[in-house]
Amino acid sequence: MQVNRRVVIVSLVAVALVAGAVGxxxxxRRDNPPASTAVAPSxxxxxxxxxxxxxxRTLSPDELAKLSAPPHxxxxxxxxxxxxxxxxxxxxxxALVAGRSPSQDVPQLxxxxxVSQKDEIAQLQRWLTERGEPLPEPHGNHVxxxxxxxxxxxxxxxxxxAAATGPAFDKLFLQLMIRHHEGAITMVQQLYRDGGGxxxxxxxxxxxxxxxxxxxxxxxxxxxAKRA
Length: 228
Known about the structure:
Elements: H1 2-31, E1 47-48, E2 57-58, H2 61-65, H3 74-94, H4 105-130, H5 155-163, H6 166-193, H7 200-225
Antiparallel strand pairs: 1-2
Helix pairs in contact: 3-4, 3-6, 4-7, 5-6, 6-7
């Protein structure tokens, strides 16, 4: 009889385990329906970033259907050419620092600007070459060649900087370079105002120029404030 009791107990335990397993399986099916009955996810939103200083917006389904990779424009190519010339003048300013600045922070700043401007010039030239666009003419739209671009320095500015030394040089260098960088930011704004920057690569270059110049302007303003 004792053996029979053990058999009955074992049988009851087995039945309980099977029932529990079935219950878990049913619950799992309720919580996780088969892939064939799952609802397909709705498509995600596509957000078009706005120009610097402007809000982004979500594209409608109709706009998405018509969306295609836009080609570059004449405004894009002109922006790249002018920005190359603009950056080249910044290199002229940084070349005047050695032997004139008595500080440590101004030469360090000039070196950072030199490296970043050279890298961006190479990037701008590559963008033009890959699209079969001509590079800017040497010294085109530079001092003595027509109207100056925003922030560009004239001969009087350059002569004054070359003649300065000591703390006066540092202060004038920062003032002129801030003006020069703010001009580059203005050129980015003009690009978008003229309908450029639609091509993704052109938009990326313009945004990088805008961000880099803005960061350096804030840094130079801080340096200038310490010399007031």
